[in-house]
Design a protein that fits this description.
The complex is a heterodimer of chains A (316) and B (295). Chain A is mainly alpha-helical and 316 residues long. Chain A contains 15 helices and no strands. Chain B is mostly helical and 295 residues long. Classes of the chains: A mainly alpha (316), B mainly alpha (295).
Chain lengths: 316, 295
């Protein structure tokens, strides 16, 4: 209780100011109401629903009356060999995507930075940002059309002398690389924006001085420009790994995968959707979802801690 | 001397390679759409025979006629327009209303930190898909247009961005208004909103694109054919390859390939994004750095 005393005092003090200034402050509290209702109903009420991970949920009985079964769902989850497979797939896909994307984005930003004709640079940027704004339905449709066995890519490969059509999305060797590559293609332009912003803050005098001292173009990139974007790269990587479980990309996987590639392509989110909603195993899928949410929370908190320790970046 | 030499041969070779590479990369982002465009206008023999690359072969507009005749496609388009307009408006109202009070300090607004904490926690942690779905079902939103609008109405990350933007509005403006006797409603309306037009435009555009592109909610929350949004309908066509809607006159498919029909529908879905793209471009650099990078 000793520890809580300052907190209680602080709350009391806030309460007294709340009462005293309410005649002037009340609009602020009214403004908050609609969003708070939304938060309670669509964020906190679902969190209360997590209790069904410890129940055998029956739709007729609801959150409150379904029978408790303790940790049975978690036992089922751990005994299921496909759980570990899916867990591994999620981490492999997410990590490959993050690393590939940020590595290529830095390089693309450096290349764009070397273009001196502003019109040319702007035009390239306009083109490479576009795919970011297309949904994975549209992109998935395009890929299924172009990468199919009769699609234009295999037609061209055939003309180039490849005999067997490559079923990019239908076999376990090519599925994940195709996911990573198409994700890269969709996001790389967009991902350069932060690096290009970092590049503008490099002191031009530094570059001039280096040039006078005889540093060539490549040396300037290596010793001045690259170190200039490094802090941004570390920041982005840290945030991305904080959001690792989102990075696997539910939208993309769900629209591109098929049973033939479940062993490499099935991820936590697609499994939760398939087993939970389509298979109506609500409690088991909620248990898996809870594990995902808790691990995700730990990751993001660690990454935000790291970021606030080493930079002056603050999210809120 | 030295500098002149270094700007010389090697540097120029690099420039040529660099420009060429960037051009190829840029074109690779638009070529799939051009291929789809060519495919959508080509006739059956050319499309199924794999003769189409970037130019229509024996062009015919028939696929577009079929798409625009199909009631279910037009209806889905209309549902998407409604959800985008109503949904984005509601989003912006909620975002503005909560981020303005949250931009105050704990000293100005008692209990501000508790409210902020509940927003941040909900951003970092959630109940997961199944409880979320069960709650929406319990609230009676399944199979209504509201299922496409209400659950998306409070994007928490955008709340944080907007709050950070409001925080950078000079305090003096607000203090002067308070001395002049303005209420917080007036301060929000006449001081904060006019200053924040770029940020509001950014979040509105991104909200609208998000609504237009959303498909998962339409897939799990809507069963009624007349309420399916466009992206969800497109999924049944291009991902599930379900052509039933267009099979009432099977002889139509003598004239065009199902691949052309899919391409045409994909392109019609993309058109609204292409229309707002120039505006998006004007704002999205500010959007991504908005509020996120302080100091």
């Amino acid at each position: 209780m000793q520890v809580l005393a300052p907190v209680v005092d602080d709350l009391k003090e806030q309460a007294s100011r709340f009462v005293r200034y309410l005649p002037r402050l009340w609009p602020l509290y009214v403004m908050v109401i609609p969003a708070l209702i939304h938060l309670v109903l669509l964020s906190y009420y679902p969190m209360y629903g997590i209790r069904i991970a410890f129940q055998d949920y029956k739709p007729a009985l609801g959150f409150d009356k379904s029978p408790w079964v303790g940790l049975k769902q978690f036992q089922l989850m751990l005994d299921n060999p496909s759980f570990w497979q899916i867990f591994r797939n999620t981490i492999v896909i997410a990590t490959s995507k993050i690393v590939t994307l940020q590595f290529c984005a830095v390089i693309l930003a450096l290349l764009l930075n070397e273009v001196r004709k502003l019109f040319y640079k702007r035009s390239v940027q306009s083109l490479v940002y576009l795919p970011y704004f297309l949904s994975w339905i549209v992109l998935g449709g395009i890929m299924l059309e172009m990468l199919g066995s009769a699609g234009v890519v295999n037609q061209l490969l055939q003309r180039a002398g490849v005999e067997q059509p490559i079923i990019f999305l239908g076999n376990n060797r090519t599925f994940v690389p195709t996911l990573v590559a198409s994700h890269l293609w969709q996001q790389v332009g967009w991902a350069t924006i932060l690096y290009l912003a970092a590049l503008t803050s490099i002191d031009p005098q530094l570059l001039e001085a280096a040039a006078i001292d005889g540093a060539g173009r490549f040396q300037r990139v290596l010793y001045i420009i690259l170190p200039g974007v490094l802090p941004t790269l570390l920041l982005v990587l840290c945030l991305d790994f904080g959001l690792l479980f989102n990075a696997a990309g539910f939208d993309q996987v769900l629209n591109l995968y098929n049973p033939a590639v479940y062993s490499t392509g099935d991820i936590l989110d697609t499994w939760i959707y398939r087993e939970g909603l389509l298979g109506a195993r609500f409690s088991l899928a909620t248990a898996v979802g809870l594990v995902r949410s808790v691990l995700g929370l730990i990751l993001i908190v660690v990454s935000l801690r790291l970021i606030s320790r080493f930079t002056d970046y603050q999210v809120y | 001397m030295n500098r002149a030499e270094r700007r010389g041969f090697g540097s120029r070779v690099f420039d040529i390679f660099n420009h060429t590479f960037l051009l190829v990369l840029g074109l690779s982002c638009i070529i799939p759409l051009i291929h789809l465009l060519a495919l959508s206008f080509s006739d059956r023999a050319a499309a199924t025979g794999g003769l189409v690359t970037l130019w229509p072969v024996r062009p015919t507009p028939i696929t577009y006629e079929k798409v625009l005749e199909a009631g279910v496609f037009l209806n889905a388009f209309w549902i998407s327009v409604i959800r985008t307009v109503v949904g984005t408006t509601l989003q912006m109202i909620l975002i503005i209303l909560i981020s303005f009070p949250l931009s105050k300090s704990k000293e100005e607004m008692p209990f501000r930190n508790i409210i902020m904490g509940s927003v941040v926690f909900a951003y970092l942690f959630n109940g997961g898909l199944i409880p979320w779905f069960l709650v929406i079902r319990k609230l009676g939103m399944l199979n209504t247009i509201w299922a496409l609008i209400i659950p998306q109405a409070l994007p928490l990350w955008n709340v944080i961005l907007m709050m950070n933007f409001f925080r950078r509005v000079p305090k003096e403006l607000e203090e002067a208004s308070i001395i002049d006797g303005a209420t917080y409603w007036q301060i929000l309306l006449h001081v904060y909103l006019p200053i924040s037009v770029p940020a509001l435009a950014t979040l509105t555009l991104f909200g609208a694109v998000g609504h237009w592109n959303a498909w998962f909610d339409g897939m799990i929350l809507i069963a009624d054919r007349d309420l399916i949004p466009l992206q969800t309908f497109l999924r049944t066509v291009v991902v599930k390859m379900d052509m039933n809607e267009f099979m009432r006159n099977p002889e139509d498919f003598d004239m065009f390939s199902d691949r052309s029909l899919r391409a045409a529908q994909t392109l019609v879905t993309v058109v609204p994004i292409l229309v707002v793209y120039p505006f998006l471009q004007r704002y999205f650099v500010s959007g991504i750095t908005l509020g996120a990078l302080k100091g």
